[in-house]
Amino acid sequence: MTPSQKLEPARPVPAPDAPAGAAAYPSATPGRPAPAGARGRWPLRDYPGLLWLTLAALLTLVHPFLPGSRWLMVHLVLLGALTHSIMVWSTHFTQALLKTRPGLDDRRDQSRRLTLLLVGTTVTLVGVPTATWWLTVVGATLVAVAVGWHGVQLWRRLRAALPGRFRVTVRYYLAAAVCLPVGAALGATLALGLDDGLHGRFLLAHITVNVLGWVGLTVTGTLLTLWPTMLRTPIGPRAEQRARQALPGLAGSLAVLLAGSLADVRWLTLAGLAGYALALLWWASATLAPVRTAPPREFAPASVGLSLLWWLLGIGLVLWRLATTSTWAELADGIGPVSAVIVVASPHSC
Fold this sequence. Notes:
The protein is an all-alpha fold. The protein has 13 helices and no strands. Helix 2 runs antiparallel to helix 3 (about 70-100), helix 7 (about 195-230) runs antiparallel to helix 8 and helix 11 packs antiparallel against helix 13 (about 335-350). Residues about 1-40 have low confidence and may be disordered.
């Protein structure tokens, strides 16, 4: 996500070193905590994502010699880098859209959440590979609390803000924040060591609620405004309306998918995933107008556009696996390459 872009033609977004509204508010005065958007280096904001991606890159060099390396590489990217980035940038875009007062969620509180997330992620990334279940539970709980706190603060901002356009983006973020604690609980349950059938069902639920919910809802909510901005063209007249219409379909389909997989009802799981794909296509139909007006000619918008196609390919692969495998255990055995496809798409979408 690129904070140097404008979310609306008439509203400049803060500079890259001020991701929570510094353009609209003054810097901190002596004796008072810095507002969330104060300029300058902010280690808890700037470095953890880079750290997790660096570790993931290093792990690719030695992964043949480490047991469970695929799980670790996937979670260094999704749980580590991507979750941190979502926490930071959804706060930034919420502030840029709603223009709430900085004291509502100042830098000190944001730093506490990011610290909680960093500790929880680290503990989880140690607990699962070492098969230490209590450590995994502690890590998953800390991550869930950090993201839940993040969701509460987004809700407070939404309630405090004046009416305005694109509030639906923040509602996408709120729906996404509900998904991550559910996914964390499912992940901790998987670490218990379930039988093959249960493992397949919980694995599918874990992957879809985290990737299609936590990541997918955040991406779709953000691109409502960011995609036309990257293309330097006005937002389509129907984009906001279709985003509002798509959100219940996306969230409801995830709930159906989750219920179907946990209850061992294959057709319900298929219906939920198909419903999510249809709602996503309805949301995506509103993004075609900016592309027709200004086709991508630079790397950043082209990368985002292609990653969305890659994302749809990943969903299609999951649908195909779900429809053609006879047991949940067989589904779980072939889910690795599919998860790799989705992991490749996720950072580029953000």
